[in-house]
């Protein structure tokens, strides 16, 4: 009999890759997604082949009665709002989905049998951190998105401690790869760049571009989630990145020779750099995809972003006006 796992947000960027990987490992997957930012086309082949089943609902409204399986292998919780900048103007929306939604999935699955629940947390909880950043670093939630993701993680930690549920959390650094979403307003660098390349526009670089980010390819990332799910460790928090930060300007120059610089945003670190010693010690996981190959994969699939909005410095200034106002 096939193992059955649940992936919330399973039609989205990371979630759909998680679904792909689980199915490659012989799992049947129950996907919970309201398709607000996730795309049905990301999972269509699995639905057609009856290797997955979609429950179309908001995560805060999900009921366990919507599934009939009594025994679940793993639960991967990706459902949530991921765009950082818009959280400054609509924090209530982020708390509702990222916190209340997490509470609901924890409560709805509390009385079914499962081997591991893995929460998708964010490294943004560290704020402007000392690097390389370990899991013991102080928490500094600078904007509503980071607060909402950390509150969701705290619920998971509490449910593990009080209800003895087998839960772990992964603090994702800077995920990238095919299917990365562009529907959440101005935010993630790569969708902005891909559309600018398609339209032959200059790439907009925040600040001088010397800021570095610890980018982790989505293929490596979902394997980390799977390794943590398979591990006997419970109640653990793990950083996941490559441990090899790269500057934004270096990435931009790989992609294009047309570049323009825009004002640096307050509240954003000059570098993100994951200390990944803990996850590599507790599991067999190692990141394998380097930035050059990761970028080649994205460029090969660049048409994924043909319907993305085109951003220029004027539109970005309007979209980030409140960010500058509140975080200056």
Mean pLDDT metric = 96
Tertiary shape: globular
Lateral arrangement of strands in the main beta sheet: 3-2-1-4-5-6-11
How many structural domains does the protein architecture include? 2
Question: From the 3D coordinates, which CATH architecture of the largest domain would you assign?
Answer: 3-Layer(aba) Sandwich
The name of the CATH superfamily of the largest domain reads NAD(P)-binding Rossmann-like Domain
Number of strands: 13
The computed structural class is alpha/beta
Run of helices and strands: EHEHEEHEHEEHEEEHEEHEHHHH
Unreliable runs, pLDDT <50, ≥5 residues? Answer: none
Percent of residues in helices: 25-40%
CATH topology of the largest domain: Rossmann fold
What count of helical segments does DSSP give? Answer: 11
Radius of gyration: 19 Å
Pathway: Bacterial outer membrane biogenesis; LPS O-antigen biosynthesis
Pfam families: Epimerase
Domain NAD-dependent epimerase/dehydratase: 6-241
Organism: Candidatus Pelagibacter giovannonii
């Amino acid at each position: 009999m096939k193992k059955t796992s649940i992936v919330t947000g399973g039609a989205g960027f990371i979630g759909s890759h998680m679904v792909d990987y689980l199915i490659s490992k012989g799992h049947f997957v129950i996907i919970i997604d309201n398709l607000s930012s996730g795309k049905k086309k990301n999972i269509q082949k699995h639905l057609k082949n009856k290797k997955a089943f979609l429950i179309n609902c908001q995560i805060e409204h999900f009921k366990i009665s919507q599934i009939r399986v009594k025994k679940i292998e793993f639960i991967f919780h990706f459902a949530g709002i991921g765009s950082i900048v818009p959280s400054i103007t609509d924090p209530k929306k982020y708390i509702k989905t990222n916190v209340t939604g997490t509470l609901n999935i924890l409560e709805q699955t509390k009385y079914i049998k499962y081997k591991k629940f893995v929460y998708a947390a964010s490294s943004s909880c560290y704020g402007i951190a000392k690097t390389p950043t370990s899991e013991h670093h102080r928490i500094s939630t600078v904007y509503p998105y980071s607060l909402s993701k950390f509150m969701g993680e705290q619920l998971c930690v509490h449910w593990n401690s009080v209800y003895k549920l087998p839960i772990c959390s992964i603090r994702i650094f800077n995920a990238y790869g095919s299917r990365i979403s562009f529907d959440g307003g101005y935010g993630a660098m790569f969708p902005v760049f891909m559309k600018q390349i398609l339209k032959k526009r200059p790439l907009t670089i925040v600040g001088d571009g010397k800021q570095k980010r610890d980018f982790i390819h989505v293929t490596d990332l979902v394997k980390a989630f799977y390794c943590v799910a398979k591990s006997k460790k419970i109640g653990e928090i793990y950083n996941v990145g490559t441990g090899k930060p790269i500057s934004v300007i270096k990435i931009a120059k790989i992609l294009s020779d047309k570049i323009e610089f825009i004002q640096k945003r307050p509240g954003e670190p000059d570098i993100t750099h994951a200390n990944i010693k803990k996850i590599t010690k507790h599991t067999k996981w190692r990141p394998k995809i380097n930035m050059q190959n990761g970028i080649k994969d994205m460029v090969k699939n660049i048409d994924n972003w043909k319907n993305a909005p085109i951003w220029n410095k004027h539109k970005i200034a309007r979209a980030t006006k409140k960010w500058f106002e509140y975080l200056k």
